[in-house]
Amino acid sequence: MKTFLKNNWLKTIIAGVICLIHIVPFYISITVALKAKTDLSSRWILPKELYLENFIKAIERAEIFSAMKNSLIITITAVLIITILGAMAAYPLARNRSGLNKTMLNVILAVMMIPPLSILVPLLTFVTRIGGVSTFWGIILVVATYQLPLSIFLYTNFIRTIPMDLDNAASIDGCSSFSIYYKIILPLLKPVTATVIILVGVNIWNDYQFSLYLLQDPDMKVVTLAVANFFAQSSSNFGAASATALMAICPITVMYLFLQQYFVKGMVDSAIK
Amino acid sequence: MSESRKTNIINEKNMINIMYLPALILFCIFVFYPFVSGIRISFTNWNGFSQNFEYIGWLNYKNLLHDEILQLALKNTLIYGIGSTILQQMLGLFYAVFLDKKFIGSKTTRTVVYLPVLIAAVIMGYMWYFIFQYNSGALNDVLRVLGLESVDWLAKGNQAVWIITLVNTIQYTGVSMVIYLAGLQNIPKMYYEAAQIDGAGPISQFFKITLPLLYPAIVTSVTLNLIGGLKLFDVIKALTNGGPGYSSHSISTLVDHTYFKTQAAGYSSAMGVILFLIIMGVALLTIKIFDKNEVDM
After folding, report:
1. ipTM of this complex prediction, to 2 decimal places
2. Entry pTM
3. φ/ψ (deg, to 5) at B215
């Protein structure tokens, strides 16, 4: 029993060191954000008194709340499109395993691997031509399209685990495939939909590459752009930039702390299957 | 079942394919069409905005072969991809094995290690900048307390590349850890009990039982990390923006730079095509190698 306890504490100390390594950037950002420009004390030291001016600058000059509003509109709409179209597309891919559909699945897998930057020039040219630059619909359709493969995959794998007997029984009762989907499959998709919403939602909220090119109007900036722009402009005032970054990561951090197991489960489900 | 009923069912089975039509249309508009037109643009000398341009055949690709900046970016891309993959597997595997059994702080550590995964890479990059910055950077503060000279961490290209790799590794080790933790749960405890009876120590248990049985998890984690690392863009933008000079560019950031800073849209497109081919090639190669090994096992 004694050695058991001893081991335990050694492990706890090692775990503490691991935590420190991963938490350091957060801690340093907090101390930077809480200090005035004139406070030249080490970034390791917390300020003697709280200085909240930087957060006011983040709201007024970096317009972080307006960026959050834009990010929220884009994320919610895109996630809605992705879950509806993804679940729909997955049903035939899971239930009708023809050669054509097998090819479809492989093509979708390939789309998942396309680096956004490899199609930057033509995509930007095309979206410019159809008038989609700096519009909500433009960015929403693009991010939704590039996140769709992930949701189609998750839904396809999930539907395959639903016994075919259910479909067959309904079919004998005279249900068409469409009504089988609507009445039987769709209500069973709740757990995987939670996974899709979390994974895809995080990806879209954090998108930088598409937003950087497709959202050129300053009024249309999203959180990642707000932080990046503010850092680029305010090399002399890192406190305000840091406050902007901290406010930008706040919503997702809080959500993660409350819904931790869903975030982790979603990741594992998407990776292992 | 009568013949006509059977064909009915088959027809209906194919009919439901229209359910993926909306998704397919989106792919055609925003993926396949730009992809094909990107290949077309890569054979022109287009500057990105002018109405006039000419088809110049393979010239962009020929120039790419001799482009030293691209070669450097290619080398960096491989370091970002392979370097972070190796580091993430080692660290992720260690964390998973270490945190698999409960002890005080194990759960908190999992939470902390996974947190950065959910934060935008570009924001995470800026947060790390406070540490590696030359003036008043947190790391140089430590050096000063120890009585050492301050180091301009991101001023030397090669060093910057490794720092970016490290930052990327620390951010995404949580992914590998979580995959390996899930993998460990699938290993039946009785294997370890049997090994203990046979007198196998913890190290030989790790190499003889844990590692081989984690194989599927390793495949998943390596593929994910490799593709993510080869695409690296956001962190580089935040930490060095490809600099100093061109020394820390990945192909992704170089495509961006070539398009916006030098207005060489045709050339940039050709680079994009190369980037796509590299990622596809590596992905297919990984799948092939792992498939073959699986047969051998």
Report:
1. 0.90
2. 0.90
3. -45, -50
